[in-house]
Structure formats: structure tokens, C-alpha cells
Amino acid sequence: MRFAWFGGYTGVDDHRVAVEMFDGDGYEPARNEEGRPLTDADLETFLDYVPDPDYGTSRFPHARSHRYTFSWETTARVLTGTYRLHIMGTNWNGSAAEPYELYSDSFTIEPSDDVIVADLTVDDLGGGSYRISFQGLLPPNEAGYRVRDPNTPIGDPSPVDGGTASATVNVDGGTPEPVTLTYVGAGVFEANFTKTQAGAHSVSVAAGGLADRFGNTNGEGAGPVAFPD
Length: 229
Fold this sequence. Notes:
Blueprint lengths: L1 E5 L9 E7 L4 E3 L15 E8 L12 E8 L8 E12 L4 E7 L3 E3 L6 E11 L2 E10 L19 E2 L4 E8 L5 E9 L2 E7 L6 E5 L4 E2 L10 E5 L3
Antiparallel strand pairs: 1-5, 2-3, 2-6, 4-5, 6-7, 6-8, 9-10, 10-11, 10-14, 12-13, 12-15, 12-16, 13-14, 15-17
């Protein structure tokens, strides 16, 4: 999310940006996972400044505009809802410094269906028992600046954090069997399955079969993957 405005000269403008969230009655400060109000002072955000003309081209004294751009690169951990930005600063009106205040339009953060179901696998445990597993991954934002996961490079998919998952075991000539998988960490979901029907078995994950703890889901399914003989 990006929002730009023209403010005051950096020697005067003590600009501050606060992210606010609608709570049903009005807007209140949005908070990060640690409970702190989310502002331009947080690592989750980025503030850019561009003067026009730039100081290399036209040095003092010279009339120029001062364009500020606030960026908030959201991740899967951001609460869904309606937000706005509240900007406060100071501008020089030609004879004195005067405060200014403005708000962005409201915008909505919704759950994503871009979660990837990767490495759907069936392992033979012996005695007709099997382990079904897969990993849920969030796609990278290759143009972004935020680390999605401390153990994942910025350009790589990062594992989902918790959630629920289900799969379906299909049996040739038999009845499909639903399977509920348990989150075990690092984006991985697992379940043990014991055969009770004759015939070739395979497992699939339907679109929407995975939902992380923030409500993000997989828009595409995975499989089928055959059980080992």
C-alpha cells in the first residue's frame, strides 16, 4: 500500500504517519503483533522523500515541492479489515510554520487465496498405514522490502504459520475418504491414514483445503498423488 502527498520542507516538516483501523464505530490506531501502534517509525513501513527540483540540480535558495511517499508492505499476519492513513505535519506558508493534517481514503485488507500447496507426499509406514503431508507456502513479493520469515530469503516462498488443512483420499472403485491434517511447524501439515478399502489409493487437496491462522487460503488444488505400492 502506498500513499503520497506534498508536504513541507524537511527542515520544517515534522511529518508523522499513523495507520488507523475501523473498529465498527470509528477509527483507532492499528497495532502490530507486539501491540504497538503502527506508524512510519516502524520497520513494517517505509517513507520516501523526493524534492522537485532536487538539491543537486538547484541548490538553496530555490522554490521547490516536497513529495513524501509512505509505503506499507502488508504480510499474511496483518489483520483483515478497513484501514486509513492519518498524516500530520508542518508546512512553511511563506511567513510562518503552520500545521497540516490529512487522511487517505479508506482501504480494505482481505484474506489472500495465493497460498501454495507444495510437496504433497505419501509415505508408507508399513502395515497398511501411511503419512500424508504437504507444506503451505506464501508467495514472495520480489519487489518488496520486508522479510516474510526470518529463515527464508526475501525472494523465496515463506511457510504459513498455523491453520487448518484437509485432503481427500480417493479409492479406485471405492468411497472417497476425507482426511484432516495437523499443523506441525514450518508450514507443514501431516496426518496418518490407514487403508480400509481395496483398490489403488491417491490423495488430493482441493482449492480452499488449507487456511492459515490469518484466513489466507490456497486458490489452487494439488494432486492427485498416488499411494506407494
